[in-house]
Amino acid sequence: MTAAALSPVQRPVLALAVVMTMGVLGYTFGLNVRQAGLLLIGIAMGVSLYHASFGFTGSYRRVIVHGDMSGITAQMLMLAAAMLLFAPILAQGSAFGHGVGGAIAPVSISMALGAFVFGIGMQLGGGCASGTLFSAGGGNLRMVLVMVFFCAGAFWGSLDLDWWSRLPGIGKVSLAREFGWEIALPMQLAALVLIYFGLRIAGARNQRSIWWENGFHWMHLLRGPWPLLLSAGLLALLNWATLLLSGHPWSITWGFSLWAAKVAVALGWDPATSPFWNDGYSLAALTRPVLADDVSVTNIGILLGALIAASLASKVSPKPITSLRPLVSAVVSGLLMGYGARLGYGCNIGSFFSGLASASLHGWVWIACAIPGNWIGIQLRPMFGERND
């Protein structure tokens, strides 16, 4: 496998991806080094996600339908690594002279409902927020459509969030604050071990290798595919790097909400009509450039990283949507995920991955509510012409 193996069709795509990346990188350097660093982290995330096809949606579907827990095993190792990396930094409360804080969100009825709705949407769409980003960046036109309606659904949810937030809840619960990190960290790691063996007792097995299956060649690092375990380890490190650089863990769906809100403002919408958007951080974000927003710049980095990875692997081949059912499922799934993410304070990344790494109770409640939603989504997939293989 050599550079000459790149097809003529992919060389122009790779060149375009590199030019776009250099342009965006130059702009972010003009803002500040921090934003440029977050862009580079996002690019690395995009490459890691794409080359391993690392997603939550397919892993949940495989374990539910086929008893294949390979993807779940990789995710558990990723979560354990992130917990170990996050704990000393969050216990200290600062890094490189600035404060850091975990992804701690309220536990409430609306959060639980949002996770449940998101779970349905991710199976109908064929990808969660991170899966949508790397698939869209890799040239999947259907996932581009999912992302558009994901943004619309997230904005819609932000307009309704004030009403939903009045439903009963117990507020933010940090396990580290309640028990101390010396207890919270082993407790969370033990929970992962119990879940792993619980799945084994239920009959699930690792049916695919999570490491290099047919031997390693250095060109695999450039062209892929990557094993699940390599991507899992890198994503844990990159989430930790995001925490160190930005002061908060990896998140995705806030960026989608912001993008749609900026479009709405351009079309004449008044943020003063929304309690979510008319004050504080949200209003300030509307007035700044998109690339000045931490989450947005990371998201854009993921799109660029996935495009680079796909062009290196000669897999950029956009296919038009030629039938109605995939079109409908793209629209419905995007809206469900966007709305659910806004109610649920994030997705598999912001609420589950970063939430558990931060020892937040809401991360555990989120996944407990999202899994039944995934099961329902799996049952609905055939209605939209999607197979469960």
Shape: globular
Multimerization status: single chain
Uncertain spans, ≥5 residues at pLDDT below 50? 1-9
Rg of Cα set: 20 Å
Report mean pLDDT, rounded to a whole number: 94
Report strand order across the widest sheet. 1-2
Number of strands: 4
**Helicity level:** 55-70%
Describe this structure in words.
- This protein has one domain (7-384).
- It contains 17 helices and 4 strands.
- The chain has helices at residues 10-31, 33-51, 56-66, 70-92, 109-125, 129-137, 141-164, 175-179, 181-201, 218-223, 228-246, 253-266, 280-287, 294-312, 324-343, 348-357, 361-380; strands at 94-95, 98-99, 106-108, 169-172.
- The chain is globular.
- The two termini are 30 Å apart.
- 50% of the residues are buried.
Outline of the structure:
The chain has one domain (7-384). Helix 6 crosses helix 14 (294-312).
Question: How does the SSE layout of this entry go?
Answer:
Elements: H1 10-31, H2 33-51, H3 56-66, H4 70-92, E1 94-95, E2 98-99, E3 106-108, H5 109-125, H6 129-137, H7 141-164, E4 169-172, H8 175-179, H9 181-201, H10 218-223, H11 228-246, H12 253-266, H13 280-287, H14 294-312, H15 324-343, H16 348-357, H17 361-380
Antiparallel strand pairs: 1-2, 3-4
Helix pairs in contact: 1-2, 1-14, 2-6, 2-11, 2-14, 3-4, 3-17, 4-9, 4-11, 4-16, 5-15, 5-17, 6-7, 6-14, 7-12, 7-15, 12-14, 16-17
Keywords:
389 residues, mainly alpha, two-stranded antiparallel ribbon, 17 helices, 4 strands, 69% helix, disordered N terminus
